[in-house]
Specification:
22% of the residues lie in helices and 31% in strands. The protein is α+β, with helices and mostly antiparallel strands and 311 residues long. The protein has two domains: 227 residues, 3-Layer(aba) Sandwich (Aminopeptidase); 69 residues, Beta Barrel (OB fold (Dihydrolipoamide Acetyltransferase, E2P)). The strands form two sheets. Strands 1, 2, 3, 4, 5, 6, 7, 8, 9, 10, 11, 13, 16 and 18 form a 14-stranded mixed β-sheet that branches. A four-stranded antiparallel β-sheet has the order 15-14-12-17, with no helix packed on it. β1 and β2 form a beta hairpin. α1 packs across α6 and α4 crosses α6. The protein binds zinc ion. The site of zinc ion has 4 residues, from loops.
């Protein structure tokens, strides 16, 4: 059954088989415009599953404000179950603000910036570890002077057990940097990922979005974010995390959220005969936030990213 309040717009992209589908759901009462994005990375299904469930379950008669939903930000990568776009190899999360005359992924970024992010008052971008990486359920936000306070409150309202603050400036090219440049408070969500998202995580994402809608006054329910989260800080820039120095079988030696001391061995990478090719230490004291899950790594793949306590 279709939600009678939903409206869909299909925007032409550089790839005729992969239009950008944008849905709007307008509440009965005035309120903020909340943009929700999923599948910026095509191997992260938590966003599309969460947003499709919300589109069926939300009743606009009981809602204030407007949702702009973009459940498949990179439809080509979603269809291929890949992190980046098969057509040009680009990572959509590095392409904002995009270029209407550029490569297919740059065109997508420009369309999303214009039709999803910039018309919004607030933004939530739903990610996950995808196939190769594991992480705890957390909400991340940029701590810019103009938007950091509102973003922090949204991150808290989501109800994740961990909140990650990224000091300004955010690295460029992201949905969050695009929003921040436009003065729009924005957060992103991450969770353990995997090829098949666990149903309980999708339920947590859906409840988290509803919690933020309650926080923003869009739903007539009492915000209930649960226990105070663990607060961590750090850049979170996965382009400058610890990468695999060699290719081989990957053996992780630490647990998510474990305290790390500089020099602790976090990964061994072995050859096919079991010989250790490289032992990879923590580069600083911290907390393990992203850890490689896949058991084979290629040289240059992300192994680990860490944060530090922010209490
Ligand atoms: Zn992602």
């Amino acid at each position: 059954m279709t939600n009678p309040g939903l409206r869909e717009t299909r925007l032409t992209t550089a790839l005729p088989d992969h239009p950008l589908r944008i849905f709007t759901l307008k509440g009965a009462r005035a309120g903020p415009v909340l943009a929700l994005i999923g599948a910026v990375h095509g191997d992260e299904l938590e966003g599309p599953l969460t947003l499709s469930a919300l589109m069926q379950s939300l009743d606009p008669a009981e809602m204030a404000g407007t949702l702009i939903l973009c459940p498949a930000a990179n439809p080509e990568a979603l269809a291929a179950s890949t992190r980046c776009s098969p057509s040009d190899g680009r990572n959509l999360a590095r392409c904002f603000p995009g270029d209407p005359g550029g490569s297919p992924t740059e065109v997508l970024a420009a369309l999303i910036a214009r039709h999803v992010i910039r018309p919004a008052d607030v933004l939530i971008d739903l990610h996950s570890g995808g196939g190769p990486v594991h992480c705890p359920l957390f909400a991340g936000y940029g701590d810019a002077a103009a938007t950091g306070g509102a973003a922090r409150a949204m991150a808290r309202a989501f109800g994740a057990p961990v909140v990650w603050r990224h000091p300004a400036p955010l690295p460029p090219g992201r949905t969050l940097s695009e929003a921040q440049d436009a003065g729009i408070p924005a957060i992103y969500i991450e969770a353990g990922g995997g090829i098949v998202p666990p149903p309980e995580i999708v339920s947590r994402y859906e409840a988290g979005v509803r919690g933020i809608m309650a926080h923003l006054g869009m739903l007539d329910q009492r915000p209930d974010p649960g226990p105070a989260p663990r607060q961590v800080a750090g850049s979170g820039d996965l382009d400058h995390a610890i990468m695999a120095p060699v290719s081989g079988l990957c053996h992780c030696r630490v647990d998510l959220l474990a305290p790390l001391s500089k020099g602790d061995i976090c990964f061994d990478i072995t050859d096919l005969d079991g010989r250790v090719l490289a032992s990879v230490p923590a580069e600083a004291d911290g907390i393990a936030m992203f850890l490689r899950r896949s058991r084979w790594v290629s040289q240059g793949d992300l192994l680990m990213a860490s944060a530090h306590p922010d209490d």
